[in-house]
Design a protein that fits this description.
- This protein is an alpha+beta fold and about 190 residues long.
- The protein has a single domain, classed as Beta-Lactamase.
- Helix content is about 25%, strand content about 30%.
- It contains 4 helices and 7 strands; from the N terminus they run ββααββααβββ.
- The longest helix has 17 residues.
């Protein structure tokens, strides 16, 4: 069991109810509502992708027997090499103003093709789709504050403008209960 099971939450965020959400108050919609589920049990129940369920099982194995988060050193993307093209990892870095910078340390080749940009070594704000930046940063803040993994799903546009349905499993990694990194695995067009 992963820490935070008893805190599972589920919400469908639409333009009408986003301002009422306590944890994701500033998320702006893209082309469709962002569907978010948080906490191990809720995520496990909501995942549609067998591919992401495999990653969830691996993540859970890293936490087995502990009450804390898996550390970044424990997470080895080469254990599931077929996931590597659709993985990204973000390091959370404190800013002088008390905020947090989200720095991509890994951005898979499949994601580079899908989004038309390599974010490795870049900050989240450098992503070309500013609407996506705001939504993703708010999900990252939610994970950093709660320590809960999330599943998001919805439609978005690829770099060539094609509509794509995607599902993401976003997992916190950390040290002594503090989230220091976030890793995400994406599966798209898996309806």
């Amino acid at each position: 069991m992963v820490h935070g099971d008893n805190q599972s939450v589920s919400s469908q965020l639409t333009a009408q109810d986003m301002d009422d959400s306590k944890t994701l108050r500033n998320v702006k919609p893209s082309d469709a509502a962002l569907k978010l589920v948080s906490g191990f049990e809720a995520v496990s129940d909501a995942l549609k992708s067998r591919y992401l369920a495999e990653m969830l099982d691996y993540y859970a194995s890293l936490s087995a027997g502990t009450s804390g988060l898996p550390s970044p050193a424990q997470f080895d993307p080469t254990v599931l090499p077929h996931h590597m093209p659709n993985l990204y990892m973000v390091e959370l870095r404190p800013r002088q103003d008390g905020g947090t910078e989200y720095h991509y340390t890994m951005f898979g080749t499949g994601l580079r093709l899908l989004f038309g940009v390599d974010m490795t070594g870049k900050l989240i704000g450098e992503f070309p789709d500013h609407n996506r930046v705001e939504r993703t940063a708010e999900v990252f803040r939610h994970i950093a504050e709660t320590g809960l993994l999330t599943r998001t799903a919805g439609e978005f546009q690829s770099r060539n403008g094609m509509p794509v349905w995607g599902e993401a499993l976003t997992m916190p990694l950390g040290d002594m209960g503090t989230v220091t990194h976030i890793v995400a695995d994406l599966d798209y067009d898996n309806r």
